Amino acid sequence: MKRLSIIATLALSASLGGCALLPIAEPARIDFVVINDTPYDDTDRAMLARAIPAVKAQTPPFILHVGDTQSGGEVCGPPDAAFAKMLSDLKPIPVFYTPGDNEWTDCDRKDDPATGRKFSELQRLEGLRQRIFATPPVREAKWHYAQQPDMPENARFDYGRFVVVTMNVVGTNNGRDLVMGDDLSVAASAADARDAHNVAWLKAAFAHARKRGAAAVIVATQADMFNQKAEARFVPCHDVVADDKRLCDGFLPVRAALVHESRAFGRPVFLIHGDTSPFTLTQGDLPGDSLTDKAGNLWRLNAAGDAGSDKDKSWGVRDVTTVSIDLSKAQPISARGLLTGEVPGRETPGPDAD
Prior knowledge:
Blueprint lengths: L1 H14 L13 E7 L6 H17 L4 E3 L15 H10 L4 E3 L23 H11 L14 E2 L7 E5 L2 E5 L4 H5 L8 H29 L3 E5 L31 H14 L3 E5 L6 E5 L10 E8 L5 E2 L4 E2 L5 E6 L6 E5 L17
Parallel strand pairs: 1-2, 2-3, 6-7, 7-8, 8-10
Antiparallel strand pairs: 1-13, 4-5, 5-6, 9-10, 11-12, 13-14
């Protein structure tokens, strides 16, 4: 009987293309930290000064940083300046980062001090690729770390029975609105290429998860692809524009691929993002009127971080997020603000993403 079991295991491994299966003994629980949409101001910097030592005291196996290392109203400095200090402060914890719109697509809100002209979004993205994503956050073989060749900011790694994938999907309608520092036709071609690469990378990640026998997939993006306030839902974008007057859905291809792949995978999938202020956790009943926007095995966490106030109101939770996923539970994912103890609620209106 034992010999037959071994033969069956080898045959199954061969049928999966030779990819090593995950042993059942691998833990079905994972605990990590998410950082995003901070620091925007001195209050955020003070929060991080308290949060970073608290994160290190928890010794999570890794941190997901889902973008926006500065305010969208700031003049953009060197592409890695704000992020480099945070990496140094968090050592030796590996930080897996996906960029936010404030690091590149929103830089052309201001003039480049070096040229007196609007920043080029595309040059900013290339700077991130060269100065941040050229160096892998981990080198040990156990992580099975991989990057997409033409979009090195798109990465994937394995942890226990989980596959984690990052994708460059950002706010400002996925880089299709308010393009002021680049030729619009060039920027449109680049946006189309990013969509195609993101969809291909997502499909490859789920194929990898199936081959490994992974129990769950975690997807990290900056953008809130399911933003309730988004207009023109399901209207494809065919270009980019220099304003925000045109109504189309810049997230449609990637969101549709995520829902489709989640359904086909059949096991838990967790989307973690920032970009908008509500600290929320939803499952299955994702915003949208179409069945194409539904997947009962897909949970969505809009992490804490994007917070502020004005004379009339305040919004968001100024914190970093601790996340626990335990696949033995009916409600497998939970989250909490590390400093505030706040827990995510249901979706509620908030201000536009900054």
